[in-house]
Amino acid sequence: xxxxxxxxxxxxxxxxxxxxxxxxxxxxxxxxxxxxxxxxxxxxxxxxxxxxxxxxxxxxxxxxxxxxxxxxxxxxxxxxxxxxxxxxxxxxxxxxxxxxxxxxxxxxxxxxxxxxxxxxxxxxxxxxxxxxxxxxxxxxxxxxxxxxxxxxxxxxxxxxxxxxxxxxxxxxxxxxxxxxxxxxxxxxxxxxxxxxxxxxxxxxxxxxxxxxxxxxxxxxxxxxxxxxxxxxxxxxxxxxxxxxxxxxxxxxxxxxxxxxxxxxxxxxxxxxxxxxxxxxxxx
Amino acid sequence: xxxxxxxxxxxxxxxxxxxxxxxxxxxxxxxxxxxxxxxxxxxxxxxxxxxxxxxxxxxxxxxxxxxxxxxxxxxxxxxxxxxxxxxxxxxxxxxxxxxxxxxxxxxxxxxxxxxxxxxxxxxxxxxxxxxxxxxxxxxxxxxxxxxxxxxxxxxxxxxxxxxxxxxxxxxxxxxxxxxxxxxxxxxxxxxxxxxxxxxxxxxxxxxxxxxxxxxxxxxxxxxxxxxxxxxxxxxxxxxxxxxxxxxxxxxxxxxxxxxxxxxxxxxxxxxxxxxxxxxxxxxxxxxxxxxxxxxxxxxxxxxxxxxxxxxxxxxxxxxxxxxxxxxxxxxx
Lengths: 283, 332
Known about the structure:
The structure holds 2 protein chains of 2 kinds. Chain A is mostly helical. Chain A has 12 helices and no strands. The longest helix of chain A is centred in the first third of the chain and has 29 residues, at about 65-95. Chain B is mainly alpha-helical. Chain B has helices at about 20-30, 40-60, 65, 75-100, 105-115, 135-155, 160-185, 190-210, 220-225, 235-255, 280-290, 290-305, 305-330, and strands spanning about 265, 270. Chain B has a two-stranded antiparallel ribbon. In chain B, a hairpin with a 4-residue loop joins strand 1 (about 265) and strand 2. Chain B is globular, with a radius of gyration of 22 Å. The interface between A and B is large, with 52 and 51 residues.
């Protein structure tokens, strides 16, 4: 049972905030304000979805079959939708009056928190599919864990996104298997994609101080805790696809802290063009 | 209209028709739908394949001018809406290729004809999309013109085509509204945004009028197609209807139609307007529009670059079938 309000010492801050909101004045900062690690974590989730969604959407009208055009547009839509929710919550928790669009369109590359993997260029369709599979296998584990987050807003977003990402993984895993165990050429292309991308997978499971703070608060799992399940999924799919993961490869990292590849700057130059060229315009 | 100048096969008077052809024409005249396995004149089948094929090609080539702005959409919401819209166009292509397949032509055969230049797509998609306002103008004018033609085609005589059109029209009317919504936002925005909107209207007005095809007096294939109810209205009727619908919409936006001779004609109850430059239309149809090479080139590249992907999937399917057969034999 919730505790009853103390009638003798009313919560003046809350009441003042309520009065201001009701009379149409500026709202008081959200009670979450001052949780930089939480904001950081939400941006990592939102930026992964935004940047991968952007990359996938580049295929629109150019993919190898009409069904793929439709499927990729769908996937990009799911990711942009997830990005709106994660960045929307990040902006709310941050409490500085920004919104999801301001975060997407008005931050420079150094403020982006996505994994390096998702910003890599599309390459051939094999690279695009392999990147998707390696990320989906991580993404699904992250979302499953977030469904039990101590923050109900995070749990709600994760529950919605999990359904979409379960399908992304089903699709990408299926195509990796079919193309790995397809023709000599399709196998060679999928193997080359795997070899190229493998050194960008380690970053998904590196824990840092932000991750530790999230885990301590029960908001999110430690990324390292997701690795065994990812290893298992990836090993099973690669085996069926007759593909071999490189061993002992160097692992790149930096995206989670804002140190990106050269590619992100170009993505943002394109994505943010209108907002930068016409500041303050409404679209 | 996404099908322009579709060549129609022959035109016979009732006296010249065989009994089968007469019975077929009577069914159409009674408003019956023709279904895939039923008898139809060869000319009807061929004309429909051309028209549905050209329409399908227009949908998939039509992904490109709008796809051009997906990565630059100004807000997350606009990006999502545009993605959904372009995805719908791909979906329309898919229904239409399926409708054509019921007439005995495969999607691959139709694509081969597109890629080799033996089949066309709508001239409108050979114009560039230069600013974000073009996303508004394309939705408002191009989809608006397409709907004008496609709404009557819901009643076309060929069942699968008619059913595809019913579904497509629902989505197209959403597309037109989203285009107009972009225009409203731009026109209510900064002076630069409003100028962008006017510029987009200036560039897309005449190409949109061309979408209905040449004037009736120059349209040689209309009569037979209309008798077969493959084409429901003449080009000029539809163009007039489009102008009458669009002028008040432009006025509401505070934009000027780029036609000094545009004026209301009380007597005919419609607007008088200038004809588009038909020499430009024929030049675009002949391959000399500003983006013909890019558009067709992009489709050919997608097809060629994707060959290994399609071959890989086919090879896997064959292997899986062999393995299943071997497993069945081993179990016996």
